[in-house]
Design a protein that fits this description.
By secondary structure, the protein is mainly alpha-helical. It is built from 24 helices and six strands. The chain has a two-stranded antiparallel ribbon. The protein has a two-stranded parallel ribbon with strand order 3-4. Strands 5-6 form a two-stranded antiparallel sheet.
Protein backbone atom coordinates (compact mmCIF):
# COMPACT_ATOMS: atom_id res chain seq x y z
CA UNK A 1 0.00 0.00 0.00
CA UNK A 2 3.00 2.29 0.23
CA UNK A 3 2.63 4.55 -2.76
CA UNK A 4 -1.16 4.23 -2.79
CA UNK A 5 -3.18 6.94 -4.50
CA UNK A 6 -3.46 10.12 -2.46
CA UNK A 7 -7.10 10.75 -1.62
CA UNK A 8 -8.67 14.05 -0.50
CA UNK A 9 -8.27 12.81 3.08
CA UNK A 10 -4.51 12.54 2.53
CA UNK A 11 -4.31 16.12 1.29
CA UNK A 12 -6.48 17.29 4.18
CA UNK A 13 -4.16 15.60 6.69
CA UNK A 14 -1.12 17.14 5.02
CA UNK A 15 -2.73 20.58 5.15
CA UNK A 16 -3.57 20.15 8.86
CA UNK A 17 0.00 19.08 9.65
CA UNK A 18 1.41 21.99 7.66
CA UNK A 19 -0.80 24.38 9.63
CA UNK A 20 0.22 22.84 12.97
CA UNK A 21 3.97 22.85 12.28
CA UNK A 22 3.78 26.28 10.71
CA UNK A 23 1.95 27.83 13.68
CA UNK A 24 3.65 26.08 16.59
CA UNK A 25 7.14 25.24 15.33
CA UNK A 26 8.22 27.41 12.41
CA UNK A 27 6.40 30.61 13.38
CA UNK A 28 7.94 30.96 16.90
CA UNK A 29 11.42 30.28 15.53
CA UNK A 30 11.03 32.69 12.62
CA UNK A 31 9.58 35.34 14.96
CA UNK A 32 12.65 35.18 17.18
CA UNK A 33 14.98 35.32 14.18
CA UNK A 34 13.17 38.40 12.87
CA UNK A 35 13.31 40.15 16.24
CA UNK A 36 17.01 39.35 16.65
CA UNK A 37 18.18 40.40 13.18
CA UNK A 38 15.71 43.07 12.03
CA UNK A 39 15.06 46.50 13.53
CA UNK A 40 12.70 48.97 11.84
CA UNK A 41 12.93 47.07 8.57
CA UNK A 42 16.71 46.84 8.40
CA UNK A 43 19.09 43.97 9.04
CA UNK A 44 21.38 44.41 12.04
CA UNK A 45 23.78 42.53 14.29
CA UNK A 46 23.59 45.18 16.97
CA UNK A 47 21.99 42.98 19.61
CA UNK A 48 24.63 40.29 19.20
CA UNK A 49 27.24 42.98 19.69
CA UNK A 50 25.54 43.99 22.94
CA UNK A 51 25.78 40.39 24.17
CA UNK A 52 29.45 40.06 23.29
CA UNK A 53 30.26 43.41 24.94
CA UNK A 54 28.44 42.55 28.15
CA UNK A 55 30.75 40.99 30.78
CA UNK A 56 27.75 39.21 32.36
CA UNK A 57 26.63 37.63 29.07
CA UNK A 58 30.17 36.64 28.13
CA UNK A 59 30.60 34.97 31.51
CA UNK A 60 27.23 33.23 31.14
CA UNK A 61 28.19 31.88 27.71
CA UNK A 62 31.58 30.72 28.99
CA UNK A 63 30.05 29.04 32.05
CA UNK A 64 27.39 27.26 30.00
CA UNK A 65 29.95 26.04 27.48
CA UNK A 66 32.29 24.84 30.25
CA UNK A 67 29.46 23.08 32.12
CA UNK A 68 28.29 21.34 28.94
CA UNK A 69 31.83 20.30 28.00
CA UNK A 70 32.66 18.97 31.47
CA UNK A 71 29.33 17.16 31.65
CA UNK A 72 29.84 15.50 28.26
CA UNK A 73 33.38 14.40 29.11
CA UNK A 74 32.36 13.25 32.59
CA UNK A 75 29.37 11.30 31.27
CA UNK A 76 31.68 9.68 28.71
CA UNK A 77 34.15 8.61 31.40
CA UNK A 78 31.26 7.04 33.29
CA UNK A 79 29.37 5.49 30.38
CA UNK A 80 32.27 4.10 28.35
CA UNK A 81 33.58 1.61 30.95
CA UNK A 82 30.02 0.68 31.90
CA UNK A 83 29.11 -0.04 28.27
CA UNK A 84 32.35 -2.01 27.79
CA UNK A 85 31.64 -4.22 30.80
CA UNK A 86 27.99 -4.79 29.86
CA UNK A 87 28.76 -5.74 26.24
CA UNK A 88 32.03 -7.68 26.61
CA UNK A 89 31.46 -9.69 29.78
CA UNK A 90 28.85 -12.16 30.92
CA UNK A 91 28.09 -12.51 34.63
CA UNK A 92 25.10 -13.37 36.84
CA UNK A 93 22.55 -10.56 37.09
CA UNK A 94 23.88 -8.69 34.05
CA UNK A 95 20.38 -8.21 32.61
CA UNK A 96 19.08 -6.71 35.86
CA UNK A 97 22.09 -4.43 36.20
CA UNK A 98 21.78 -3.29 32.58
CA UNK A 99 18.23 -2.12 33.24
CA UNK A 100 19.07 -0.51 36.57
CA UNK A 101 21.88 1.54 35.01
CA UNK A 102 19.22 3.35 32.97
CA UNK A 103 17.24 4.32 36.08
CA UNK A 104 18.81 7.80 36.43
CA UNK A 105 17.41 8.64 32.99
CA UNK A 106 13.87 8.43 34.37
CA UNK A 107 14.75 10.48 37.45
CA UNK A 108 14.28 14.18 36.64
CA UNK A 109 17.49 16.22 37.23
CA UNK A 110 15.35 19.17 38.36
CA UNK A 111 14.13 17.15 41.36
CA UNK A 112 17.52 15.55 41.93
CA UNK A 113 19.08 19.02 42.25
CA UNK A 114 17.06 19.57 45.44
CA UNK A 115 18.44 16.38 46.97
CA UNK A 116 22.03 17.01 45.88
CA UNK A 117 21.89 20.50 47.37
CA UNK A 118 20.67 19.02 50.66
CA UNK A 119 23.50 16.49 50.65
CA UNK A 120 26.42 18.68 49.58
CA UNK A 121 25.57 22.12 50.99
CA UNK A 122 28.06 23.67 53.42
CA UNK A 123 25.99 22.37 56.31
CA UNK A 124 24.38 19.49 54.44
CA UNK A 125 24.36 15.80 55.23
CA UNK A 126 27.89 15.03 54.02
CA UNK A 127 29.65 17.85 55.89
CA UNK A 128 27.61 17.34 59.07
CA UNK A 129 28.45 13.63 59.00
CA UNK A 130 32.15 14.38 58.58
CA UNK A 131 31.97 16.90 61.43
CA UNK A 132 30.23 14.37 63.65
CA UNK A 133 33.00 11.85 62.92
CA UNK A 134 35.63 14.47 63.69
CA UNK A 135 37.12 14.37 60.18
CA UNK A 136 36.69 18.12 59.51
CA UNK A 137 36.47 21.12 61.89
CA UNK A 138 32.91 22.33 62.66
CA UNK A 139 33.75 25.84 61.49
CA UNK A 140 35.40 24.78 58.20
CA UNK A 141 32.83 22.94 56.05
CA UNK A 142 33.99 21.73 52.64
CA UNK A 143 32.52 23.56 49.65
CA UNK A 144 31.51 20.45 47.69
CA UNK A 145 29.29 22.36 45.25
CA UNK A 146 32.06 24.80 44.32
CA UNK A 147 31.83 28.33 42.88
CA UNK A 148 28.26 28.92 43.98
CA UNK A 149 27.02 25.55 42.72
CA UNK A 150 29.04 25.30 39.49
CA UNK A 151 30.54 21.86 40.20
CA UNK A 152 27.31 20.67 41.79
CA UNK A 153 25.50 21.31 38.51
CA UNK A 154 28.13 19.36 36.58
CA UNK A 155 28.01 16.42 39.01
CA UNK A 156 24.22 16.28 38.89
CA UNK A 157 24.14 16.42 35.09
CA UNK A 158 26.77 13.70 34.74
CA UNK A 159 24.80 11.38 37.02
CA UNK A 160 21.54 12.18 35.21
CA UNK A 161 22.70 12.14 31.58
CA UNK A 162 25.24 9.30 31.42
CA UNK A 163 22.47 6.78 30.50
CA UNK A 164 22.03 8.54 27.14
CA UNK A 165 25.68 7.90 26.28
CA UNK A 166 25.49 4.44 27.82
CA UNK A 167 22.63 3.51 25.46
CA UNK A 168 24.43 4.81 22.37
CA UNK A 169 27.80 3.32 23.28
CA UNK A 170 26.29 -0.05 24.21
CA UNK A 171 24.48 -0.24 20.88
CA UNK A 172 27.64 0.74 19.00
CA UNK A 173 29.81 -1.80 20.86
CA UNK A 174 27.28 -4.57 20.37
CA UNK A 175 27.37 -3.97 16.61
CA UNK A 176 31.16 -4.22 16.33
CA UNK A 177 32.14 -7.37 14.44
CA UNK A 178 34.04 -9.52 16.98
CA UNK A 179 36.09 -10.98 14.12
CA UNK A 180 37.88 -7.63 13.79
CA UNK A 181 38.98 -7.71 17.43
CA UNK A 182 40.04 -11.34 17.11
CA UNK A 183 42.12 -10.53 14.05
CA UNK A 184 43.92 -7.73 15.90
CA UNK A 185 44.57 -9.99 18.89
CA UNK A 186 45.91 -12.74 16.63
CA UNK A 187 48.39 -10.20 15.23
CA UNK A 188 49.70 -9.58 18.75
CA UNK A 189 47.87 -6.38 19.67
CA UNK A 190 47.29 -5.84 23.38
CA UNK A 191 43.83 -5.27 24.83
CA UNK A 192 44.31 -1.50 25.09
CA UNK A 193 45.67 -1.28 21.52
CA UNK A 194 42.74 -3.31 20.19
CA UNK A 195 40.35 -0.94 21.91
CA UNK A 196 42.20 2.19 20.71
CA UNK A 197 42.73 1.14 17.07
CA UNK A 198 39.72 -1.09 16.36
CA UNK A 199 36.84 -0.66 18.81
CA UNK A 200 37.10 3.09 19.44
CA UNK A 201 36.99 4.19 15.76
CA UNK A 202 33.99 1.92 15.17
CA UNK A 203 31.99 3.28 18.13
CA UNK A 204 32.77 6.96 17.50
CA UNK A 205 29.53 7.54 15.51
CA UNK A 206 27.53 6.22 18.45
CA UNK A 207 29.49 8.42 20.85
CA UNK A 208 29.03 11.53 18.72
CA UNK A 209 25.29 10.87 18.53
CA UNK A 210 24.91 10.57 22.29
CA UNK A 211 27.44 13.29 23.12
CA UNK A 212 25.62 15.87 20.99
CA UNK A 213 22.39 15.25 22.90
CA UNK A 214 24.15 15.40 26.28
CA UNK A 215 26.02 18.60 25.35
CA UNK A 216 22.90 20.45 24.18
CA UNK A 217 20.83 19.18 27.10
CA UNK A 218 23.47 20.36 29.56
CA UNK A 219 24.04 23.69 27.79
CA UNK A 220 20.33 24.59 27.86
CA UNK A 221 19.37 23.06 31.22
CA UNK A 222 17.36 25.53 33.27
CA UNK A 223 16.17 23.58 36.31
CA UNK A 224 19.45 22.68 38.02
CA UNK A 225 21.00 26.18 37.82
CA UNK A 226 17.82 27.70 39.24
CA UNK A 227 17.72 25.28 42.16
CA UNK A 228 21.42 25.85 42.93
CA UNK A 229 20.98 29.60 42.54
CA UNK A 230 23.67 29.78 39.86
CA UNK A 231 22.44 32.56 37.56
CA UNK A 232 25.51 33.16 35.39
CA UNK A 233 24.55 30.66 32.69
CA UNK A 234 22.77 31.23 29.38
CA UNK A 235 19.58 29.39 30.35
CA UNK A 236 18.96 31.53 33.44
CA UNK A 237 19.81 34.72 31.55
CA UNK A 238 17.17 33.81 28.96
CA UNK A 239 14.70 32.98 31.74
CA UNK A 240 15.30 36.37 33.36
CA UNK A 241 14.93 38.21 30.04
CA UNK A 242 11.30 37.05 29.65
CA UNK A 243 10.13 40.02 31.74
CA UNK A 244 12.01 42.47 29.46
CA UNK A 245 10.97 41.25 26.03
CA UNK A 246 9.31 44.52 25.04
CA UNK A 247 12.11 46.74 26.30
CA UNK A 248 15.31 44.71 25.82
CA UNK A 249 15.59 42.87 22.47
CA UNK A 250 18.96 41.43 23.48
CA UNK A 251 17.03 38.45 24.89
CA UNK A 252 16.05 37.45 21.35
CA UNK A 253 19.68 37.54 20.25
CA UNK A 254 20.68 35.32 23.17
CA UNK A 255 18.00 32.76 22.28
CA UNK A 256 18.99 32.81 18.60
CA UNK A 257 22.62 32.33 19.64
CA UNK A 258 21.61 29.19 21.53
CA UNK A 259 19.55 28.04 18.54
CA UNK A 260 22.48 28.55 16.16
CA UNK A 261 24.82 26.71 18.52
CA UNK A 262 22.38 23.80 18.69
CA UNK A 263 22.15 23.63 14.91
CA UNK A 264 25.95 23.84 14.65
CA UNK A 265 26.42 20.91 17.03
CA UNK A 266 24.03 18.70 15.07
CA UNK A 267 25.54 19.70 11.71
CA UNK A 268 29.02 19.01 13.06
CA UNK A 269 27.87 15.61 14.26
CA UNK A 270 26.47 14.74 10.84
CA UNK A 271 29.67 15.96 9.19
CA UNK A 272 31.80 13.81 11.47
CA UNK A 273 29.58 10.83 10.65
CA UNK A 274 30.17 11.48 6.96
CA UNK A 275 33.96 11.72 7.12
CA UNK A 276 34.48 8.91 9.65
CA UNK A 277 32.68 5.99 8.05
CA UNK A 278 33.93 2.58 9.13
CA UNK A 279 31.98 -0.09 7.33
CA UNK A 280 32.04 -3.77 8.25
CA UNK A 281 31.38 -6.60 5.84
CA UNK A 282 29.35 -8.50 8.39
CA UNK A 283 28.90 -9.10 12.06
CA UNK A 284 29.48 -12.26 13.99
CA UNK A 285 27.56 -13.33 17.05
CA UNK A 286 28.59 -11.17 20.02
CA UNK A 287 28.03 -13.99 22.44
CA UNK A 288 30.91 -15.90 20.85
CA UNK A 289 33.46 -13.42 22.27
CA UNK A 290 31.84 -12.60 25.60
CA UNK A 291 34.07 -13.38 28.53
CA UNK A 292 32.44 -15.26 31.38
CA UNK A 293 33.41 -13.63 34.66
CA UNK A 294 34.21 -15.66 37.73
CA UNK A 295 33.16 -14.88 41.27
CA UNK A 296 35.79 -12.20 41.75
CA UNK A 297 35.05 -10.50 38.41
CA UNK A 298 31.32 -10.59 39.07
CA UNK A 299 31.84 -9.04 42.50
CA UNK A 300 33.98 -6.25 41.03
CA UNK A 301 31.44 -5.58 38.26
CA UNK A 302 28.58 -5.33 40.74
CA UNK A 303 30.60 -3.18 43.14
CA UNK A 304 31.71 -0.77 40.43
CA UNK A 305 28.46 -0.43 38.49
CA UNK A 306 26.29 -0.80 41.56
CA UNK A 307 28.27 1.96 43.26
CA UNK A 308 27.70 4.20 40.22
CA UNK A 309 23.98 3.49 40.35
CA UNK A 310 23.80 4.17 44.09
CA UNK A 311 25.62 7.47 43.64
CA UNK A 312 23.30 8.49 40.80
CA UNK A 313 20.17 7.72 42.84
CA UNK A 314 21.42 9.22 46.10
CA UNK A 315 20.12 12.76 45.39
CA UNK A 316 16.64 11.39 44.77
CA UNK A 317 16.84 9.38 47.97
CA UNK A 318 17.58 12.65 49.75
CA UNK A 319 14.46 14.16 48.16
CA UNK A 320 12.38 11.30 49.56
CA UNK A 321 13.93 11.80 53.00
CA UNK A 322 13.22 15.54 53.00
CA UNK A 323 9.65 14.98 51.83
CA UNK A 324 9.08 12.87 54.96
CA UNK A 325 10.95 15.12 57.39
CA UNK A 326 9.09 16.97 60.14
CA UNK A 327 12.30 18.55 61.42
CA UNK A 328 15.66 18.57 59.65
CA UNK A 329 18.00 21.32 60.82
CA UNK A 330 21.78 20.97 61.26
CA UNK A 331 21.57 17.18 61.49
CA UNK A 332 22.78 14.57 58.97
CA UNK A 333 19.29 13.00 58.82
CA UNK A 334 15.81 14.22 59.79
CA UNK A 335 15.09 14.23 63.53
CA UNK A 336 11.36 13.56 63.05
CA UNK A 337 9.23 12.11 60.28
CA UNK A 338 5.75 12.90 58.95
CA UNK A 339 3.37 12.26 56.04
CA UNK A 340 1.77 15.68 56.41
CA UNK A 341 3.53 17.07 53.34
CA UNK A 342 2.00 14.36 51.17
CA UNK A 343 -1.42 15.13 52.63
CA UNK A 344 -0.93 18.72 51.47
CA UNK A 345 0.17 17.62 48.02
CA UNK A 346 -2.77 15.25 47.59
CA UNK A 347 -5.23 17.70 49.12
CA UNK A 348 -7.02 20.67 47.65
CA UNK A 349 -4.38 23.37 48.18
CA UNK A 350 -1.99 25.01 45.75
CA UNK A 351 0.35 22.01 45.68
CA UNK A 352 -2.54 19.67 44.94
CA UNK A 353 -3.80 21.90 42.12
CA UNK A 354 -0.39 21.70 40.45
CA UNK A 355 -0.64 17.90 40.34
CA UNK A 356 -4.08 18.12 38.75
CA UNK A 357 -2.81 20.72 36.28
CA UNK A 358 0.13 18.52 35.28
CA UNK A 359 -2.14 15.50 34.82
CA UNK A 360 -4.40 17.58 32.58
CA UNK A 361 -1.59 19.09 30.52
CA UNK A 362 0.34 15.83 30.19
CA UNK A 363 -2.76 13.77 29.39
CA UNK A 364 -4.00 16.08 26.65
CA UNK A 365 -0.51 16.51 25.19
CA UNK A 366 -0.12 12.71 25.04
CA UNK A 367 -3.44 12.39 23.18
CA UNK A 368 -2.38 15.13 20.77
CA UNK A 369 0.94 13.37 20.22
CA UNK A 370 -0.86 10.10 19.56
CA UNK A 371 -3.01 11.67 16.85
CA UNK A 372 -0.09 13.51 15.28
CA UNK A 373 2.28 10.54 15.53
CA UNK A 374 -0.12 8.06 13.94
CA UNK A 375 -0.98 10.52 11.19
CA UNK A 376 2.66 11.30 10.36
CA UNK A 377 3.79 7.66 10.51
CA UNK A 378 0.83 6.52 8.36
CA UNK A 379 1.53 9.17 5.72
CA UNK A 380 5.24 8.33 5.63
CA UNK A 381 4.80 4.55 5.44
CA UNK A 382 1.48 4.06 3.64
CA UNK A 383 1.28 6.96 1.20
CA UNK A 384 3.63 8.34 -1.43
CA UNK A 385 3.35 11.98 -0.48
CA UNK A 386 5.28 14.96 -1.85
CA UNK A 387 8.03 16.35 0.38
CA UNK A 388 7.97 13.29 2.63
CA UNK A 389 11.51 14.08 3.80
CA UNK A 390 10.39 17.56 4.86
CA UNK A 391 7.58 16.09 6.97
CA UNK A 392 9.97 13.59 8.53
CA UNK A 393 12.46 16.38 9.31
CA UNK A 394 9.79 18.56 10.92
CA UNK A 395 8.64 15.65 13.08
CA UNK A 396 12.20 15.01 14.28
CA UNK A 397 13.22 18.68 14.58
CA UNK A 398 12.18 19.02 18.27
CA UNK A 399 15.04 16.64 19.16
CA UNK A 400 17.42 19.41 18.09
CA UNK A 401 15.32 22.27 19.44
CA UNK A 402 15.82 22.94 23.17
CA UNK A 403 12.63 23.41 25.17
CA UNK A 404 14.07 26.66 26.47
CA UNK A 405 14.15 28.10 22.95
CA UNK A 406 10.68 26.89 22.01
CA UNK A 407 9.09 28.19 25.21
CA UNK A 408 10.74 31.59 24.74
CA UNK A 409 9.38 31.70 21.20
CA UNK A 410 5.85 30.94 22.44
CA UNK A 411 5.95 33.75 25.00
CA UNK A 412 7.30 36.23 22.46
CA UNK A 413 5.36 35.10 19.41
CA UNK A 414 1.92 34.67 21.00
CA UNK A 415 1.80 37.91 22.96
CA UNK A 416 -1.67 38.65 21.54
CA UNK A 417 -4.88 40.07 22.96
CA UNK A 418 -6.41 36.58 22.71
CA UNK A 419 -6.35 35.48 26.34
CA UNK A 420 -6.76 31.77 25.51
CA UNK A 421 -3.61 31.85 23.35
CA UNK A 422 -1.45 34.29 25.32
CA UNK A 423 0.55 32.51 28.07
CA UNK A 424 0.60 35.71 30.13
CA UNK A 425 -3.14 35.24 30.70
CA UNK A 426 -3.81 31.52 30.22
CA UNK A 427 -0.94 29.15 29.30
CA UNK A 428 -3.06 25.98 29.15
CA UNK A 429 -3.20 25.61 25.36
CA UNK A 430 0.43 26.48 24.76
CA UNK A 431 1.63 24.25 27.60
CA UNK A 432 -0.25 21.31 26.07
CA UNK A 433 1.10 22.07 22.60
CA UNK A 434 4.66 22.71 23.79
CA UNK A 435 4.69 19.43 25.71
CA UNK A 436 3.36 17.65 22.62
CA UNK A 437 5.84 19.23 20.22
CA UNK A 438 8.81 18.49 22.48
CA UNK A 439 7.97 14.76 22.75
CA UNK A 440 6.49 14.22 19.28
CA UNK A 441 9.62 12.41 17.99
CA UNK A 442 9.07 9.63 20.57
CA UNK A 443 5.59 8.73 19.35
CA UNK A 444 6.56 9.18 15.70
CA UNK A 445 9.48 6.78 16.11
CA UNK A 446 7.30 4.26 17.94
CA UNK A 447 4.46 4.47 15.41
CA UNK A 448 6.81 4.47 12.40
CA UNK A 449 8.56 1.34 13.68
CA UNK A 450 5.21 -0.35 14.25
CA UNK A 451 3.95 0.45 10.75
CA UNK A 452 7.21 -0.75 9.18
CA UNK A 453 7.06 -4.06 11.06
CA UNK A 454 3.43 -4.68 10.09
CA UNK A 455 2.87 -6.64 6.89
CA UNK A 456 0.91 -4.69 4.30
CA UNK A 457 -0.63 -7.88 2.93
CA UNK A 458 -3.45 -7.71 5.48
CA UNK A 459 -4.18 -4.10 4.58
CA UNK A 460 -4.19 -4.95 0.88
CA UNK A 461 -6.58 -7.84 1.54
CA UNK A 462 -8.87 -5.49 3.45
CA UNK A 463 -8.81 -3.01 0.58
CA UNK A 464 -9.55 -5.77 -1.95
CA UNK A 465 -12.64 -6.67 0.09
CA UNK A 466 -13.93 -3.12 -0.24
CA UNK A 467 -12.85 -1.56 3.06
CA UNK A 468 -11.82 2.08 2.90
CA UNK A 469 -8.47 3.39 4.17
CA UNK A 470 -9.96 4.62 7.47
CA UNK A 471 -11.70 1.31 8.22
CA UNK A 472 -8.55 -0.62 7.32
CA UNK A 473 -6.49 1.59 9.59
CA UNK A 474 -8.96 1.26 12.46
CA UNK A 475 -9.71 -2.46 12.18
CA UNK A 476 -6.43 -3.90 10.87
CA UNK A 477 -3.38 -1.67 11.27
CA UNK A 478 -3.90 0.07 14.61
CA UNK A 479 -4.59 -3.16 16.58
CA UNK A 480 -1.35 -4.63 15.19
CA UNK A 481 0.75 -1.64 16.30
CA UNK A 482 -1.11 -1.06 19.57
CA UNK A 483 1.90 -1.89 21.77
CA UNK A 484 4.12 0.62 19.96
CA UNK A 485 1.49 3.34 20.12
CA UNK A 486 0.66 2.70 23.76
CA UNK A 487 4.33 2.76 24.77
CA UNK A 488 5.01 5.96 22.83
CA UNK A 489 1.92 7.64 24.31
CA UNK A 490 2.88 6.63 27.85
CA UNK A 491 6.37 8.02 27.30
CA UNK A 492 5.08 11.38 26.09
CA UNK A 493 2.76 11.55 29.09
CA UNK A 494 5.51 10.61 31.55
CA UNK A 495 8.03 13.18 30.41
CA UNK A 496 5.40 15.92 30.06
CA UNK A 497 4.53 15.45 33.74
CA UNK A 498 7.95 16.80 34.79
CA UNK A 499 8.88 19.02 31.84
CA UNK A 500 10.98 21.87 33.20
CA UNK A 501 11.79 24.62 30.69
CA UNK A 502 8.32 24.92 29.15
CA UNK A 503 6.65 24.86 32.55
CA UNK A 504 8.91 27.44 34.20
CA UNK A 505 8.65 29.89 31.31
CA UNK A 506 5.04 29.52 30.10
CA UNK A 507 3.19 29.15 33.42
CA UNK A 508 3.09 32.68 34.84
CA UNK A 509 -0.02 32.58 37.03
CA UNK A 510 -0.21 30.37 40.10
CA UNK A 511 -3.59 28.88 39.23
CA UNK A 512 -2.02 27.32 36.11
CA UNK A 513 1.23 26.10 37.69
CA UNK A 514 2.24 22.50 36.83
CA UNK A 515 4.32 20.42 39.25
CA UNK A 516 7.75 21.71 38.25
CA UNK A 517 6.78 25.39 38.42
CA UNK A 518 5.17 24.84 41.84
CA UNK A 519 8.34 23.10 43.07
CA UNK A 520 10.41 26.09 41.95
CA UNK A 521 8.06 28.54 43.68
CA UNK A 522 8.03 26.52 46.91
CA UNK A 523 11.83 26.29 46.99
CA UNK A 524 11.96 30.08 46.94
CA UNK A 525 9.62 30.58 49.91
CA UNK A 526 10.78 31.25 53.46
CA UNK A 527 8.26 28.98 55.20
CA UNK A 528 10.12 26.12 56.95
CA UNK A 529 7.84 23.44 55.48
CA UNK A 530 7.92 24.77 51.89
CA UNK A 531 11.04 22.78 50.76
CA UNK A 532 9.57 19.57 52.21
CA UNK A 533 6.29 20.12 50.36
CA UNK A 534 8.31 20.78 47.19
CA UNK A 535 10.13 17.47 47.71
CA UNK A 536 6.82 15.67 48.26
CA UNK A 537 5.64 17.10 44.94
CA UNK A 538 8.85 15.85 43.35
CA UNK A 539 8.35 12.35 44.76
CA UNK A 540 4.77 12.23 43.47
CA UNK A 541 6.05 13.26 40.04
CA UNK A 542 8.81 10.64 40.15
CA UNK A 543 6.35 7.89 41.10
CA UNK A 544 4.09 8.80 38.19
CA UNK A 545 7.08 8.98 35.85
CA UNK A 546 8.53 5.63 36.99
CA UNK A 547 5.16 3.89 36.80
CA UNK A 548 4.57 5.21 33.29
CA UNK A 549 8.00 4.15 32.07
CA UNK A 550 7.67 0.68 33.59
CA UNK A 551 4.40 0.31 31.71
CA UNK A 552 6.05 1.52 28.50
CA UNK A 553 8.90 -0.94 29.04
CA UNK A 554 6.46 -3.83 29.43
CA UNK A 555 4.74 -2.81 26.20
CA UNK A 556 7.82 -2.08 24.09
CA UNK A 557 10.48 -4.31 25.67
CA UNK A 558 14.06 -3.79 24.54
CA UNK A 559 12.92 -1.45 21.77
CA UNK A 560 12.22 1.18 24.44
CA UNK A 561 15.88 2.21 24.49
CA UNK A 562 15.81 3.01 20.76
CA UNK A 563 13.54 5.98 21.46
CA UNK A 564 16.30 7.68 23.46
CA UNK A 565 19.06 7.22 20.90
CA UNK A 566 20.08 9.96 18.53
Amino acid sequence: MNGARNTPVTWLLLAALALFFGAFLLYPVSFMLRQAFWVEGRFTLEFFGLILRSPLQREALANSFLIATCTTLGATLVALPAAHVMTRYDFPGRGWLNGLLLAPMIMPPFVGAIGLKQLLARFGTVNLTLMKLGLIPPDQPIDWLGRGGFWGIILLQILSLYPILFLNLSAAMANVDPALREAAQNLGASGWRVFRTVTLPLILPGWFAGASIVFIWSFTDLGAPLIFGFSRVVSVQIFDSITELNTNPAGYALVVLVLLLTALVFLATKHLFAIRRHEMMGRGHAGETEVRLGRRGTTLAWLGLGGLLALALLPHAAVVAQSLSARWFFTPLPEAWTFAHYAEVLGGGQAGSSVRNSLLYAGLSALLDLVLGVTIAWLLTRRRIPFASVLDTLAMLPLALPGLVLAFGYVAGFDFDLTWLNPRYNPTLLLIISYAVRRLPYIVRAAYAGFQQTSQALEEASANLGAGPWRTLRRITLPLVFANLAAGTVLTFAYAMLEVSDSLILAMREQYFPITKMIYELMGKVEPAAPSVACALGVVGMVILMGSLLLASRLLGRRLGQLFRA
